Amino acid sequence: MATMTYQGLEVLYSRQQIAERVAEMGAQITRDLNGERLVMIGVLKGAAPFLADLARAIQADATFDFVAVSSYGSGQRSSGAVKLIKDLDQPIEGKNVLVVEDILDTGLTLAYLRKLFLQQHPRTLRIAALLDKPSRRIENINADYVGFSIPNLFVIGYGMDYAERYRNLPDICLMPPSPGE
Ligand code: IMP
Ligand code: MG
């Protein structure tokens, strides 16, 4: 039987599995940095727990910045247009940038951000996504570091939400289908 949380949700990746994978990702990012500095850019709000854990698994001189975006459209269906709601606080020209995102889904968000950030001429621009849903991709974009590749499932927890709820669940869980679906 699948592991369940106190709310009766099915666990897809437990906090232990997440911690192990994040540690591996941090070690890989540390190796790739070769002793250079890093600017970690979190995509609010979903990436906040992942960024906090990933940052502590990276051995480098790192700073944080955050952006917030919204996609036009309602509910789970996006119209495809992405809007910047909160911009970077610091310039990234000449910096090693790591964009930290919870899920790479259609790729619309990260394709928009990549284009925006590249206009500022960072030294390097890499993407870390905790989860990847390659079957959902619309934009031609991939992450340099992926935690787990998953099929087309809607997940919640560890930063990820359904209508802003469940972000504080310590495990990544499956969103149960609503009655009638
Ligand atoms: P994209 O622009 O379609 O790649 O969308 C990425 C964003 O959609 C992620 O940052 C999430 O906020 C949201 N998203 C996509 N799939 C899920 C999911 O399964 N659960 C929660 N949020 C999701
Ligand atoms: Mg998000």
Structure overview:
- By secondary structure, the chain is α/β, with parallel strands linked by helices.
- The chain has one domain: 3-Layer(aba) Sandwich (Rossmann fold).
- Helices cover 22% and strands 29% of the residues.
- It has three helices and nine strands.
- It has helices at 15-33, 48-56, 108-118, and strands at residues 11-13, 38-44, 62-71, 82-86, 96-104, 124-132, 145-149, 155-156, 172-174.
- A six-stranded mixed beta sheet has the order 4-3-2-5-6-7, with helices on both faces. A three-stranded antiparallel beta sheet has the order 1-9-8, covered by helices on one side.
- Helix 2 (48-56) links the parallel strand 2 (38-44) and strand 3 (62-71).
- Helix 1 (15-33) crosses helix 2.
- The structure holds inosinic acid and magnesium ion.
- The site of magnesium ion has 3 residues, from loops.
Short description:
The chain has three helices and nine strands; from the N terminus they run E-H-E-H-E-E-E-H-E-E-E-E. It has 181 residues and is of the alpha/beta class.
